Amino acid sequence: xxxxxxxxxxxxxxxxxxxxxxxxxxxxxxxxxxxxxxxxxxxxxxxxxxxxxxxxxxxxxxxxxxxxxxxxxxxxxxxxxxxxxxxxxxxxxxxxxxxxxxxxxxxxxxxxxxxxxxxxxxxxxxxxxxxxxxxxxxxxxxxxxxxxxxxxxxxxxxxxxxxxxxxxxxxxxxxxxxxxxxxxxxxxxxxxxxxxxxxxxxxxxxxxxxxxxxxxxxxxxxxxxxxxxxxxxxxxxxxxxxxxxxxxxxxxxxxxxxx
Length: 259
Prior knowledge:
Layout: H1 2-13, E1 21-27, H2 31-38, E2 57-59, E3 62-65, E4 69-72, H3 74-79, H4 97-101, E5 128-133, H5 151-162, E6 168-173, E7 177-179, H6 195-204, E8 209-215, H7 221-229, E9 233-236, H8 247-257
């Protein structure tokens, strides 16, 4: 009988760690993008703000489609000069001694020939962690013509400045999660999402305060139930209007609250 009670106690109290505070930001597309999605597929606008295809945002000599990427204008494509197809010399990226010292020996990367040469880092756990979605679906809600800058990067940089009294850890994720390298990696839009894995990552996290940035399409009924059952704070979706241009202010507000 004692063994049964002990087993019940263990399973009820140590099923998973879970963050003390969890906030998830579900970012929605800008209002213009939402309007375009509601219009008929053959609808055209005379304003230069829109391309001939309503789903395609004008850019240069063509337009940018949320899923298909850059599409050149057919007229310009046919009249464009023939490009020189001479193969260019391949530039091989090398690694210097300083780069070697900065290589991290992370789990799953033990095959790296420079593993073990990383500089020692502070092992103190982060007070706050921010997980940033970098899957392809984020292109629809946080697109930028500058590949190195986006609203997600602005959010992280502003939060760190506002929450200077806390140690903040940053990770990026799609179907896998890893520590952020440089800030421009926050603007990647590639890969898929895995709701099951994200739930498991959350359950395994022992951080005091966890903030997750993803797109509104990830707010499925099952994820909603999971977050509600664990008293998570949800921003966006049915709860508020969070677009990429509002992320900066949200970061400042959250940063002030963390002090």
